[in-house]
Amino acid sequence: SHQQVLDELCSGGRVLSSLNNMADVAFYAGLIGKEQRHDLKSISSLRNRYAHDLHRQQLDKEPTLFKMITDTNVYKNSQPELDLNGFNQHKVFMCVIDQLIADLKERLESFNRPTIGE
């Protein structure tokens, strides 16, 4: 609903002040889907936890935080390849980020492609 959009985007009067809000705007504008929104919000939450607690350890020593990565759709869709290559937590995190960026770029480029008949 319109009110839900306003509530989510303008909470605290800080539109676009965070990756969370940018993910919401992109979702409501139809630029990304629910899965990408979920993944961006998970990455944003993970980033915030590290940014606001300087004593956090690496992901291999923070299973609760690593679960935020493994709960992303990008990870779930890539899990066989990641497991096959025996990547450690840091490499898994970097692969998830790289794939998410690639998916977003592809999605945005699709808006610039001419449609059939143009």
Short description:
This protein has 6 helices and no strands. Helices cover 68% and strands 0% of the residues. The chain is flat, with a radius of gyration of 16 Å.
Give a quick set of tags describing it.
118 residues, mainly alpha, flat
Structural topology:
Layout: H1 2-9, H2 19-28, H3 34-51, H4 63-70, H5 73-84, H6 89-112
Helix pairs in contact: 2-3, 3-6, 5-6
Summarize the structure in words.
With 118 residues, the chain is mainly alpha-helical. It is built from six helices and no strands. 14% of the residues are buried. The mean pLDDT is 78.
Helix content: 55-70%
- Beta percentage is under 5%
Average pLDDT, rounded to a whole number, is: 78
User: What oligomeric state is this?
Assistant: single chain
Secondary-structure content class: mainly alpha
Low-confidence stretches: none
Globular, elongated, flat, extended or rod-shaped: what is the shape? flat
Radius of gyration from the alpha-carbon trace, in angstroms: 16 Å
The tally of beta strands, per DSSP, is 0
What order do the SSEs take from the amino end to the carboxyl end, as H and E? HHHHHH
Distance between the termini: 33 Å
**Contiguous helical run count:** 6
Report on the biggest sheet: none
